């Protein structure tokens, strides 16, 4: 920058000196021109006087001396002027050379300035790119840290869940082992399951079999509930009579064995007799519908249709007493499956009833199988998540880089 200022100052000074010299040259040229003009005028005047007198002009001695003096002075002045002009010309040439040199330096300096400005612009762009790279890198680091934190949390959660699933899975395997579950279901059961799956796929109003949507609140009630539900235990619950008819028509076309349907909008169900819930003697007398858990709530109507106001009692004697021992008869069932109808008909708990009641256990085991498959799949997913430790290590390396 100092060199630039110095060059500009020198250039300005050289230009000023050059202008002054040119002015001096013009003034000297003007003076020389005036001297020549006066000399010419003098000579012309002498010539004119000579011609006007018609004879040779004889100058006096004093005039001749004056003439020679003036001529000599003019020559001296002309020589001096020429010398001064020559000196000034040389100075002018020197100044011109210096001026040209300064102009060359100026141009070179201008080129350097332009080059430096170009370099500065390139450096500015590089700085902008570096700043953008730094910003992007910081953002990437923040994102990678967030990913690392999320992966860490997911892996920790997966590892924790894996431990829980292993405990749960071990318990299920123990229960299945104790029950000695047959891995091969009967062909008939498979067909019935396949039918139900097809009906559910074809008709959205099909809920499922009654046994699959309810269960005894305690194992001790299994035989009694099985006895009361009777043929309705395997009945298919659906939303409307139309859905039931559509299902029946489909089964006829496919030549499938008949099934019992319980359309919820078609069932004629009486309300529960609340007084029966107040029986205190004998003890532990309950409405059968009250010892059944069910889901969804909408199937309650189907259960009420199948069970009515039937009561479950601890013993056969209790069931007999509640059925016929008062002025009002009731439908009752003992825990062993002995059923007392209002009409007086009594049916005992046959061996086939116990076999049928075991379906509640099979259902429970079926649910265990389903749960086993579900948590096994979940375990696989969590094991995959746990395997993301390698991803964590890779992310950590990227952050360090």
From TrEMBL:
SMART domains per the UniProt record, alphabetical: SMC_hinge (SM00968)
Entry's Gene Ontology cellular component terms: cohesin complex; nucleus
Molecular function terms from GO: ATP binding; DNA binding
Organism domain of life: Eukaryota
Regions crossing the membrane: none
Domain SMC hinge, residue spans: 204-323
Record-linked Pfam families: SMC_hinge
Keyword field: Cell cycle, Cell division, Mitosis, Nucleus
Entry-linked Gene3D superfamilies: 1.20.1060.20, 3.30.70.1620
Ranges where the record places region Disordered: 1-23, 37-60
Name of the protein in its database record: SMC1
């Amino acid at each position: 920058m100092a060199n630039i200022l110095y060059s500009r100052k020198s250039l300005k000074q050289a230009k000023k000196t050059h202008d002054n010299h040119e002015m001096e040259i013009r003034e000297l040229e003007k003076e020389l021109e005036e001297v020549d003009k006066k000399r010419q005028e003098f000579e012309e005047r002498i010539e004119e006087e000579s011609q006007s007198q018609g004879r040779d002009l004889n100058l006096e001695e004093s005039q001749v001396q004056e003439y020679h003096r003036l001529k000599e002075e003019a020559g001296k002045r002309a020589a001096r002027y020429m010398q001064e002009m020559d000196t000034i010309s040389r100075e002018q040439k020197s100044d011109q050379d210096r001026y040209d040199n300064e102009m060359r330096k100026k141009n070179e300096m201008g080129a350097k300035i332009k080059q430096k400005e170009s370099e500065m612009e390139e450096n500015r762009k590089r700085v902008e790119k570096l700043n953008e790279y730094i910003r992007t890198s910081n953002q990437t680091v923040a994102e990678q840290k967030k990913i690392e934190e999320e992966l860490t949390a997911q892996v920790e959660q997966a590892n924790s869940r894996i431990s829980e699933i292993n405990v749960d899975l071990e318990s299920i395997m123990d229960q299945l082992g104790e029950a000695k579950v047959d891995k091969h279901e009967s062909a008939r059961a498979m067909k019935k399951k396949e039918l139900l799956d097809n009906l559910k796929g074809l008709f959205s109003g099909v809920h499922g079999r009654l046994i699959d949507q309810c269960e005894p609140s305690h194992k001790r009630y299994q035989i009694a509930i099985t006895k009361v539900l009777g043929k309705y235990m395997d009945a298919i619950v659906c939303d409307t009579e139309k859905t039931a008819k559509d299902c029946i028509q489909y089964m006829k076309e496919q030549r499938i064995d008949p099934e019992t349907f319980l359309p919820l909008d078609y069932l004629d169900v009486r309300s529960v007799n609340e007084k029966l819930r107040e029986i205190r003697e004998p003890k532990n007398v309950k409405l059968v519908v009250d010892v059944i858990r069910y889901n969804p709530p909408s199937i309650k109507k189907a259960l009420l249709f199948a069970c009515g106001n039937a009561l479950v009692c601890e013993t056969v004697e209790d069931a007999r007493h509640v059925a016929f021992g008062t002025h009002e008869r009731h439908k009752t069932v003992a825990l062993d499956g002995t059923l007392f109808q209002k009409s007086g008909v009594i049916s005992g708990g046959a061996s086939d009833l116990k076999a049928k009641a075991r379906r509640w256990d099979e259902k429970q085991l079926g649910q265990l199988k389903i749960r086993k498959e579900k948590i096994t799949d979940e375990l696989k997913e969590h094991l995959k998540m746990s395997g993301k430790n390698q991803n964590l290590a890779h992310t950590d390396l990227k952050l360090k880089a």
